[in-house]
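Re: weekly structure request thread

Next one in the queue (247 aa):
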Amino acid sequence: MNERFRGACNYAALSPSTAKKRISAAALAPLFFAILSISGCTGVTSAPKTAASQSGTPPAAATLILNVSKTSLSFSTVNIGSNSVLPVIFTNGGNSNVTISNVTISGAGYTAAGVSSGQILTPGQTATLNVTFAPAGTGSIPGSVTVTSDASNSPATITLSGTGAQAGAPSVALTWNPSTSVVAGYNVYRSQVSGGPYTKLDSSIVAADAYTDSNVASGQTYFYVVTSVTSAGVESADSTQTSATVP
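Done, posted below.
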């Protein structure tokens, strides 16, 4: 500590002496506080900033999520020479950009457009994938679309189902009440004898509660039952039988 300031501090602490000239309290106060603020004789200090005051709120961790509006598309029956288009919407549900790396599609007659490799979706942005079914043959035709990205829930796969039919050819349209339980889809069975045995018509489970049987002949009667299938592959008992006679 500077000798001059220490002396000033000591002097301020001494009892008044009649041999020395008194300094009024009003005159002493500014000098006293000026000395204290320089010499540090008392705790008049400026506290350093703490780490908490110097740092702000840490940034949120990056999340890359790509949500899909549907996991299956059912095109029902489409005549040969015609086509049907169904959309699937992809949404960036995270807080960081998501980059699409690949779009692959399988199944005869299926094509897709609107989402491509290298496409970037910013947080909250959407992109629509339009899937087209243009069958070249008759019967049930399964397929799938897979979209791969750098999202944590990649890849996203959409199952496809559709039936090709000849224009003007006979067909039987089936509908049923959906299951009250959570199921992955349904299997459709047919027989030409009441009570069976039945043959399964679909090559993959039917996601919708409808199916068109286009592989029928005029003048014939067909008998149908439907079963529900869980995501674990557990199949229910047969539904009530229904029949149809093709004109």
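The two ends are 115 Å apart (CA to CA). The domain at 170-247 is CATH 2.60.40.10 (Immunoglobulin-like).
Next request, please.
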